[in-house]
Batch of 2 targets.
Target 1
Amino acid sequence: MVPLFDLTRQYQLLKAELEPVVLAQLESGGYVLGPIMDELEAQCAQELGVSHTVGVANGTDALQISLRALGLKAGDEIITTPFSFYSAAEVVADLGAVPIFVDIEADTLNIDPRQVEAAITPRTRGLIPVHIFGLPANMDALRAIAKKHDLFIIEDCAQAWGASLNGHAAGSMSEAGTFSFFPTKNLGACGEGGLISTNSAQVAEKCRQLRVHGQSRRYFYDEIGYNSRLHTLQAAILKVKMPHARDWNASRRRHAAHYAQLLEGTPYALPVETPGAYHVYHQYTLRVPQELGREHIMKTLAERGIGHAIYYPHPLHLQPVFDHLGYKPGSLPISETACEEVLSLPIFPELREDEVEQVAAALKAAL
Ligand SMILES: Cc1ncc(COP(=O)(O)O)c(C=O)c1O
């Protein structure tokens, strides 16, 4: 038996550190924003190497609020990846703008900058690359395109806390970065949470305003906003957890290296790490060539009690909600094939070496 993830292991290790902090916060009576939030935001800004961070209720709101802060309007177009969680495309559409999907790179599974330029129209306002599974997208190429066409970039870093490219943290390489503190993320709260990072004082100010209903000063409203504060109790928890995140990411990388060593020479296509990238393996996702039959491999894993998942089984451009955009099967073939082949294995910091060995043995047995 190897679980896909197990949050109780981390809790047991952190219990002595976490519980007094949570109790002290409860005793304090300070339950909304407050000094602990300011401290967490400063700590996150320092860790990411940006001037400002703004805590919000979740990673989806972080995307929506940063899009608003960067001035997205109804009818604008945002170019993004079809191989990701739904949020980025969802919030673009929710704001009355149009998600434009372009294909991914077969090896990194990240948005392919070569496809981006061809998709730019006079209505394009920005790009949302997702650092998928913790591997930074090709930001140098994306930034060059954005600069040439006067577009903004929001990095969706929900899966990439602590990842970097040539020494620059994910979330520091564009107009804004958005993070999720969903419990299973590399840095996870004990509930929902999110964060926006930016080097622009103006964008940060706008995000702060939008997270409290768009109010400019107490009970004065300039625009429609959101009720989207990061919970103070979660901020207190994250303040304890954040200093551990580098070690946790290092453990994930050790597990990934172990998987790579054990699976070398098999027909599985293993995750890649591009030059200059520090991959934080939010997921360890390999590809099962179609002739091997992913269903058959998953059956063997299930028989041995080994957790596994398909992230993602269906690309965003073919979701019913986007039917009206006119994409058809075959429109973005690399993403579609990836959805047929990907398989994510157990990876979390507290996973044991013998568990990695059990997973690899099951994958080999399935062949
Ligand atoms: C790539 C990506 N973007 C956005 C989100 C949304 O984050 P949240 O669940 O905190 O709203 C997630 C997480 O689920 C994600 O994986």
Target 2
Amino acid sequence: MIDLHCHILFGVDDGPQTLDDSLALARALVVDGITTVVSTSHILDPPLSMQVIKEGIKTLEQEFSARGIDLKLLPGGENHYSLSIEEMRGHSINGSRYLLLEFPHNNLPSVAGDLVFTLRSAGLIPIIAHPERNGTLLRDPELLSPLIDQGALAQLTAASLAGDFGSPVHQCARYLLRKGLVHFIATDSHGADWRVPRMTAGVKEATKLIGRAAIQQLVVENPLRVVEDRDWIYE
Ligand SMILES: [Fe+2]
């Protein structure tokens, strides 16, 4: 499986703090069935530079290789919605037109629709991170539909499907999945002890809802399309 959302770099955000923490997370990801992971540290203001991200990835790649950890790393970022369009472009997934977009947790800002429009007009494709954990969407999940209709994509967090964030988030995740409003399941993992990778558990739960073929699309085929920067096929 390909994980499009993961805080694997150490010492840059609320993910791992040390190299050992990153290595422990990497091992947990491999055990959870992940073969490729996109490094999506929080990109806030002032933004973490892509040079720092790429250097962090290089360091981890060398450590993985020395320790026999079989996990491919790609660059990216979790872009806060308040960043400029050009900052977001500079922190897209593996240099593609796709980027991970983070809204505040408590509400969906009134500019969300305009932002999706602007990003699409700039040739970018936003992937909305964990809509099931957003306060506004928790109350009314249907509010995600207009953003998807405008060409945004959405990423569910596997741990939400596993029930780790409580019942309302669990129910919202299940609703969005059944309604076909999500395009990816990712771990959004932060460590081996806290916010751990839960892909296997999430996929198991999701398979009961939409079946194995649809899940394959969400954890392998769609993420591969993104990291290879292929055109999205809108249905
Ligand atoms: Fe995240």
